[in-house]
Amino acid sequence: MAGLYFHIPFCKRVCAYCDFYKSADLRRMDDLLAAMHRELDDRRGYPGGEAVTTRYFGGGTPSLCTPEAIRGLLDHAAQLFDCSGAEETTLEANPDDLTAEYLGGLLEAGIDRLSIGVQSFDDDCLKLMNRRHTAAQAAEAVRAAQRAGFGNITVDLIFGMPGFGGDTLRRSLDAALSLGVQHISAYHLTVEPDTAFGRRAARGEFRAVDEQISETEFLTVHHTLTEAGFEHYEVSNFALPGFRARHNAAYWHGAKYLGIGPAAHSFDGEERHWNVGSVERYIAGDPAERELLTNRDRFNEYVMTALRTAEGIDTREVAARFGTKRLERMREEAAPYLQSGALRDAGGRLAVPPERFLISDAVIEALFET
Ligand code: SF4
């Protein structure tokens, strides 16, 4: 097994852009953790005894868990699976949870990579997003993590926020760089209907940025970070050499993973499972839903994830996994994009140049098998 994922669905406050599954009822934390331990036991055979190479606590807000709770889940998993070769154990954290004492506890629990949800280093932008922290708190959280001994830190940033591009975006990028983090995830704001921004947009009180601004900001992010030595290795991800996110890369490369917790997904190489997206129903033991992936589903998934990475599609892998007929069809569909420069062929790998990742969806759609 490549990855083990724990989903902690609680948040103290709901961010204006977020449509992830989450709950604000923190009173259910103990019951939730007990249910997650039960799920670990129930799925001890998943998926066939492979060793765990990466572990990831996502959410929601995993930093609302005590270090003891984190350690409890990791220790339990280590009794059930071979975690002795785990290369990366990440925890997503909100900046205002990261006290020196808490950070020390996380290190002792076995967390070696922190993903800090900064989103912006501009207080007005953070306020509009309804984040819990200020820019100063975010910077201090990164410094505190470094003082505690974390040497692998990623921060999340959001661009495409109406009214906060240009200099504000550049200042946020500069602030992240000046803190000396090893990895930055920069996501374009998506205005989803079931969010505060979505509801404001429906009332005509909020407008997403237009395509031209999107592209300008995307290129600002791309150039600023790559000029600072970061590799733009996936649509939204930038890393200093040696610091790519291993857990996420496993998803992108079709590796197996087990997801524990409400709304968590799992993949055993053939079948995808997803747990019920409700804390109450998860605690009550409602079963996961499953979907058997056809060869075509797997091919389309491979195309979609591979074209979002700098490595792109390995044509030899396509031939080996999906057959030469599919490869031939894909090459035909790819020809006009190769000609226009939207795709490059480097030694049998078809890849979207990173500075054009923003328009990769059109290429992906063209190469899909319908
Ligand atoms: S963005 Fe993160 S912290 Fe904010 S509501 Fe969504 S899951 Fe919670």
UniProtKB/TrEMBL annotation:
Domain Radical SAM core: 1-231
InterPro entries linked: Coproporphyrinogen-III_oxidase (IPR034505), Elp3/MiaA/NifB-like_rSAM (IPR006638), HemN_C (IPR010723), HemW-like (IPR004559), rSAM (IPR007197), rSAM_sf (IPR058240)
Coiled coil location: none
Pfam families: HemN_C (PF06969), Radical_SAM (PF04055)
Domain of life: Bacteria
Main location: cytoplasm
Any one biological process term the GO annotation gives: porphyrin-containing compound biosynthetic process
Compartments where located: Cytoplasm
GO cellular component: cytoplasm
Alphabetized UniProt keyword annotations: 4Fe-4S, Chaperone, Cytoplasm, Heme, Iron, Iron-sulfur, Metal-binding, S-adenosyl-L-methionine
GO molecular function, one term: coproporphyrinogen oxidase activity
Functional summary from the UniProt entry: Probably acts as a heme chaperone, transferring heme to an unknown acceptor. Binds one molecule of heme per monomer, possibly covalently. Binds 1 [4Fe-4S] cluster. The cluster is coordinated with 3 cysteines and an exchangeable S-adenosyl-L-methionine.
Family (UniProt): Belongs to the anaerobic coproporphyrinogen-III oxidase family. HemW subfamily.
Protein name: Heme chaperone HemW
Organism annotation: Alistipes finegoldii
Source species taxonomy: Bacteria, Pseudomonadati, Bacteroidota, Bacteroidia, Bacteroidales
